[in-house]
Design a protein that fits this description.
The complex is a heterodimer of chains A (213) and B (238).
Chain A (H helix, E strand, L loop, with lengths): L1 H27 L5 H13 L2 H12 L6 H8 L7 H25 L3 H9 L4 H12 L1 H16 L3 H7 L9 H10 L3 H26 L4
Chain B lengths: L2 E9 L2 E9 L3 E5 L6 H9 L6 E5 L4 E4 L4 E2 L7 E4 L11 H6 L7 H14 L15 H13 L5 E5 L7 H18 L3 E5 L2 H7 L2 E6 L2 E6 L1 H6 L4 H7 L5
Parallel strand pairs in B: 3-9, 3-10, 7-8, 8-9
Antiparallel strand pairs in B: 1-2, 1-4, 4-5, 5-6, 10-11
Classes of the chains: A mainly alpha (213), B alpha/beta (238).
Amino acid sequence: MLLSLKVAFVATVFVVLAGTAIAYALARKEFRGREFLDVIFTLPLVLPPTVTGYYLIVVFGRNGLIGKMIYDGTGFTIMFTWYAAALASFIVALPLMIKTTRAAIESVDRNLINAAYTLGHGEGETAIRVILPLARKGIMAGAVLSFARAMGEFGATLMLAGNIPGKTDTMPLAIYSLASSGEWTQAHAMVILLTIMSGVFLYLANKYSKRSI
Amino acid sequence: MGLSVQLKKKIGGFSLDVAWEIGDELAVLFGYSGSGKSMTLQMITGLIRPDEGFVRDDSKIFFDSVSGVDTPPQARTFGYVFQDLALFPHMNVMRNILFGAPDVPKQEKFSRAKAMIEAFKLVGLENRYPSEISGGQKQRVAFARALIRHPELLLLDEPFSALDKPLRIEMRRFLQEIRMQFGIPVILVTHDFDEAAFLAEKIIVYSHGKVAQIGSLAQVVEQPASQEVQMLVNGKMV
């Protein structure tokens, strides 16, 4: 439970930072390969989590593209640590953040953005003081959804972090273990807890995405 | 102080091709909707890039397609009031006005904002949000926000079109006061002939992306350059 919260929280912090930046670029910048990039970042939403996890192993595994460099340099591998669980949750939750935030940024009134320019504000300041505050609801909704998704992440986590009791067994993984070993009472409790929490997060996400000032 | 423009632009099926200049006066761009008036303003302020031409005043070039000069909108010191006013809904009146003076030192900025709030009869509304004030008050906030930077030129894109008649007339007087007080050239876009007749020191009549006539109100009314101009100034608007 605590592990799940820690993993989901860390993943969400990075999801919000990276997701907002990526969504901003996708919504406001014209560049080659923009829609291709959108597809790449959205893929984890539709791919089986095991496939996403597989890619993560290919990249971050001990012999992976980046993982090997880290391992050779420091002797550390992310595999089978809680960092891996956070990374898996990050990648899987990122598309939700990007989709919600991109839509929110694109719906900001063009005239308000133009007004900021004509009042002497450059692009960066306009983004921070006008666009992001006006897209705030969408960003909040995206963050809450991402957190809920990160809490529920199973497949990619299993591939990359394994299911090590006390180390990488986040709630969904623990539920899997409990159910497969027939410990129904405990599994029951955890399932209900996770369901309630997810329901609350969805409610919050809906609340944030409604009504703007 | 004046402004001189030559602008060419093709967008879809519409083509704009205009050239005119104004001095220190209140000039009205007048014509049917869709004749390119608003587009002209957006090119002057730098929000739309012309295909060809220039935008310059006596001392500065803001855009010139030949020499490749294209100053971004935030560096052109023009006040711009949008048709829908474009007040920031997440900022109160005070912060909306302060937002118009990004390059002014903090102390100076606040004293200017205070002066603006008094001059524009907004005292007591500083902490209200745009959704909590009336249409006329919103107009005054938009003007205060556009003027706090002491722009060299004020551009107005049909700012009064959403108001009902009595208020519209009040706002015309208000605009004349502003023009006297700040002593800067004003370019007003409108398709309302009463408004043009009341305010214009110079009328630039637009038709299908071209200038149909430039002159004083009397010239345009008494010697319309074409039948279309005559139709326009006789108030037979579609």
